[in-house]
Amino acid sequence: MKGWGLLGALVIGIVLISGGEREGEELNAAEVFLEASRPDFQPIPIWILGFGDGHAKPTSGMGIGRQIAQILRNDLTRSQLFEVVNLPLDSLEFSQSHCMGEAPLSKARNGGVTVTTWGRVGRQSSDVGARLILEACAFDQGEDGVSLGKRYVGMPISMRMLRTMVHRWADQLAFYYTGESGIAQTQIAYVAEEGKGQRNVYVMDYDGYGPRRLTAGRRLNLMPAWSPDKKALAYTAYRENQQEIVQLAVASGKKTRLVPPSNLNITPAFSPDGRFLAYASAAGGNTDLYLLDLKTGDRQQLTFHASADLSPTWSPNGREIAFTSDRGGKPQIYIMSADGSNVRRLTFEGEYNAAPAWSPRGDWIAYVCQIKGQGFRLCRITPDGQQRVQITSGRQEEMDDSPSWSPDGRHLVFSSTRGGRSHIYFIHADGTGLERLTSGGRHYSSPAWSPRP
Question: Same domain for 165 and 228?
Answer without folding.
Answer: no
